[in-house]
Amino acid sequence: MSVVVGKEDAVLQQPRIVVIGAGVAGLCAATKLRELGFTQLVLIEASGTAGGRIAKTNIGKGWVDTGAQYIHGASTENPVYRLFKKSALLSQVSEEGKSMFYRHSGRKVNEDLAERVNEAAERITRLRSSNSGRSFGEHFAEQAYSVSESWQDEEKKDVQSVLALFGKELLLDTGATDLHKVSLDSWQYYINMGDDLNVEGLMFQIVEDLVEELPKEQLVLNKAVSKIEWDGAFSGAEGQGFPVRVLCEDGEVLLADHVIITISLGCLKDQAATFFNPSLSLEKMEAINKLRFGNIAKIFLEYDQAFWDSDVSRISLIWDDDSVASISTSTAEWLRHLQLFTVMRPKEKFGNVLIGWCPGHVADLVETLTEEELSTAITQHLRLFTGNPAIPLPRTVHCTQWSANNFVRGSYTFLPVGVDGNVMDVLAQPLLGTKNPSKVEGASLHIY
Length: 448
Hints:
Elements: H1 7-13, E1 17-20, H2 24-35, E2 41-44, E3 56-59, E4 62-65, E5 70-72, H3 79-86, E6 98-103, H4 111-125, H5 136-149, H6 153-174, E7 196-198, H7 203-213, E8 219-220, E9 225-229, E10 234-235, E11 241-242, E12 244-248, E13 253-256, E14 258-261, H8 265-275, E15 276-277, H9 282-290, E16 292-294, E17 296-303, E18 312-318, E19 340-343, H10 347-350, E20 352-359, H11 360-366, H12 371-386, E21 396-399, E22 412-414, H13 422-428, E23 431-432, E24 443-447
Parallel strand pairs: 1-2, 1-14, 2-8, 6-18, 9-15, 14-24
Antiparallel strand pairs: 3-4, 5-7, 9-12, 10-11, 12-13, 16-22, 17-20, 17-21, 18-19, 19-20, 23-24
Helix pairs in contact: 2-7, 4-5, 4-6, 5-6, 9-13
């Protein structure tokens, strides 16, 4: 005699899965699970929109990315790049224009020299290290000094200034406040998958494509979680036993066999001590505490008319007294760390829009400033460096708020000096439930 399991019975036998956090990690986890045949799942998001640190707002002629806008590694080895390729968005990526460099004195730096120095600085970042216990700031200062010594005496001042500028821009890669607080050893964990690709105005479309792949009932927005009870024996309405109970702030309770957590490290730092019952292991709490979560701010400036040439994509500002020996942010002199502006291209799509970039504590500070304060300070700043007193006030100013966002609390994770990258693997290891004998032994809780 054969037994045929009906469709409804098969569905009941599937594990029930809850994915928490509808950023790209959560969206990709949910879509991958569906591809593998798991249909008993729900993806819940605390905010009113999916995407996490990929987000958009309307500025100028259209939508702009207020969150991520670079693919770090433009090759098929990179899963984000593969998503762009699948969505046929690569054909819409604009070509990069030229870079302009201005000194504090108003004098331009030779563009060819600056590009050659940048290439030398890039080579410094590719000198990987392991188990050195040193900071990236220390390493960069040593190597940058050696680079500047190889140039002729009349070029050394410009070379040193451009190297210091490059070092300050490295803070934008981590969100850190000081390169001397970033582990040199951490660079061994970054795999070079190709050049960076600026996909401004397109990144949020990846989120929209992923959302479309999920049935509407499986993505629930405005559903904040207050606690996760992950090693229990909770009974469902039909008498089924579940090892995990997710308590939502609106009073709803979700029972599950497995929970995948994709919320930001910033949120884990704020909530981990009270978010889980039973508490996370000492090893996992140490991993959360040891890792750092930096901040990046993007300041969008829309103008009626562009004061830059049509072929420019980057405007870099160089302070004559910057030094590679000490690359750190200072809120007291926050404009010194607003040294990079990128031009949104093409003009036909975005209008005349610049993006000013700030790292670390400076990013936290500019989030608190008014649009008028930002407009006045940045305009004076640009007039000083370019030597152009006619630069107008921007028509629109918009500053991102990633640190102030309760569901994010920052932008980037980075390893501080003295912390081994293995802590990231420790954090990602699944937690096993033990109190529900009716279930096959397996992982109940996954943190990514």
